[in-house]
Amino acid sequence: MSDPIIRSLLDTDLYKLTMQQVVLHQFPGVQAEYQFRCRNTPAFPMAELLPAVNRQLDALCELRFTPDEIAYLRSLRYLKPDYVDYLELFHLNRRFISVTPRADGRLDIHARGPMVQAMMFEIYVLAIVNELYFDELIRRQGIAGGHEATLEEGRRRIGAKVDKIRAFQTSLPANAPPLLLADFGTRRRFSRDWLEEVVKVLHAGVPDVFRGTSNMDLARRLGLTPIGTMAHEFLQAFQALDVNLRQFQKAALESWVQEYRGDLGIALTDVVGMDAFLADFDLYFAKLFDGLRHDSGDPVVWGEKMIEHYHKLRIDPATKMLTFSDSLDIDRAIALYGHFATRTQVSFGIGTNLTNDLGIEPLQIVMKLVRCNDRPVAKLSDTANKLMCDDPVFLAYLRQIFNLERI
Fold first, then answer.
1. What's the start-to-end Cα distance of the chain, in Å?
2. Where in this chain does the record put each Nicotinate/nicotinamide phosphoribosyltransferase domain (predicted)?
């Protein structure tokens, strides 16, 4: 077998661990199913990668957290001692994930089992599929200079981004709010080594702007701040737990508050659309959470709605953080900074455009929660092509409950 792509269980996003801790503490017996999807058309049938994907998954399931990694996790105050004890014993069980070819040449990947297990496959699977795909694509295309020429183009592009950020910093007045960028690109990276190179370039080139990375392994080894709180799957799970469906967002937010008691206070808004979220995000939650994360729909419309909502609740938006993370590039981040930074705190999590911008079309791959306790769940984002649900009856019911006919 070729070298393992995933060499550390910390090679994942922080929010997988923060969500897993809540699941372990508050609903450890929940069963879950995650489904892989590619939203664009690959350059060749991805089912041809199946043997290599299976070999990589075999290697992944042999990994354990090392003593140094456990010591690092114990240093993070929001991770509870008993949860880190659990991670010291943790490993992924191979029987909970399957990979099969589809008739259309795509890959069918499902993780099924206890949620504390199944939820952890996502980031590893996406990183594995990406790296195998791009290695094979470069080989097939016969690109002059091959892999190294592709990396050189990537270096040229990330260098231009650093220059653009520096020029924008120079143009700001001395008392301007800071421009804050973080790497959110683990799941969409070109390769493990390229992600590390990009993060090092940003950290060295714009240290006052680059605030950290979602990747726990890089955060530990490079002394960076790990960034992340929750993803859609956390709120989606409550659609299938023993709570009134109309109240699932409030139940999820309350669960988070009880677990973290003021830490990790950025909430995600688009599991059933921004308007439905704001109907549940009352004064209680608006005061308890530090801010919100945008991940679908028009970011300017979203930000304006959020500022208006804070004003209605008589909360100063300048005391809150709006984090933008949907398909961003440097130009878009700078434009959003210019629009909002004088009225509220802003930060930007950039993924694909940082870690997979090398002149080859990136894959748009996801692995999302589709069932919980054998009941369907749905993600109804403010962007139509991000909808994820395998049960049209439940989807119709959810739309009715939240008055979401237009989504």
1. 45
2. 181-405
